Amino acid sequence: AMPLATADDGVRLHYEESGSGVPVIFVHEFAGDHRSWEPQMRHFARRYRAICYAARGYPPSDVPEDPKRYSQTRAADDIAAVLDHLKIETAHVVGLSMGGFATLHFGFRHAARARSLCVAGCGYGAEQGQREKFRAEANAIAASLDAQGMPAFAERYAYGPTRVQFENKDPRGFAEFKRQLAEHSALGSRNTQLGVQRERPSLYDLTKEMAALRVPTLVLTGDEDWPCLQPGLLMKQTIPSAALAVMPNAGHTINIEDPDAFNRIVGDFIAQVDAGRWPLRDPRAVSGSITGIK
Q1: 124, 156, 162, 169: least buried by Cβ within 10 Å?
Q2: What is the distance between the alpha carbons of residues 223 and 252, in angstroms, rounded to a whole number?
Q3: Tens-place pLDDT, residues 103-141
Q4: CB–CB of 29/57 below 8 Å?
């Protein structure tokens, strides 16, 4: 039987795990699924209990027909549902893009269960002035999926301005990413756009929650992932336990575009946290002075 965890609203989520030890759970992006984490599952399973799962709307997980069953809150709570099913109290949570938002919100909603948060490629639509444009693009994506179906949509979406870097670096990896995207459920992807992506709150409206966060946090982005750079700075400035890492000449799909760099940065972060040596920002680092000499 295929391993399934059940969310509190009855939606079944397909998961996979490998390795043993301290748990690390990976949360995928809109254009990916549980398979997007293969390079991480292979790498981290050598030292950790590595877990990935397919979000609701992504087969072999259930695909609810009502968009109201998809939301930012649900996405965060679905992480907890997988951990509950596996009887895991606390885990390192690593999310990319849509999964990065879910990871951040997991930190807000379930802080006691997060050993750490890696919030990667997070920020699309968050910048002031971009919100309505992003919501309009979500509507356009939903309409395109309804009209043309998944393979035609994948052919266009795969070549977004922050994904072409992946094609340039690794044509074989990119071809696999595009092939897997074309296999997704058009209904699930449509509902995810309408329920999760379009409706999520802007990061700029969550600064109070960010300022209260004490979970060790790594904000990670590619330097050509323009929609994530300013929001990345915002999270670094606002979350007192946050570090910011930027991968050079990298787009959005950083965990598969450059798995070696991604795994090294995330691996170093997790090791530092597990050693009990992850810092909270020293108040002296946030003074109003530039040099310290007034």
Answers
A1: 156
A2: 9
A3: 999 999 999 999 999 999 999 999 888 989 999 999 999
A4: no
From residue 213, alpha-carbon distances to 108, 280, 284 in Å are 7, 10, 19
Q: Which amino acid is at 132?
A: E
Cβ atoms < 10 Å from Cβ of 45: 17
What is the rounded CA–CA span in Å between residue 136 and residue 142?
10
Tokens of residue 4, six digits: 């399934």
Q: Show the tokens assigned to 32.
A: 């990916």
Mean pLDDT is lowest, of 55-59, 131-135, 155-159, for 131-135
Backbone Cα Rg of the chain: 18
Question: Quick check: pTM over 0.85?
Answer: yes
> Is residue 222 classed as helix, strand or coil in its secondary structure?
strand
Measured between alpha carbons, how far is 30 from 26 in angstroms, rounded to an integer? 13
Q: Residues with Cβ < 8 Å from 143, sequence gap 6 or more?
A: none
Q: Write out the two tokens for 134.
A: 């992003």
CB atoms within 10 A of CB 3: 15
| Side-by-side strand order, sheet with 217-222 | 4-6, 12-18, 49-53, 23-27, 91-96, 114-120, 217-222, 242-247
DSSP secondary structure letters along 110-131? -GGGEEEEEEES--TTTSTTTH
Q: How far apart are CA 84 and CA 101, in angstroms?
A: 20
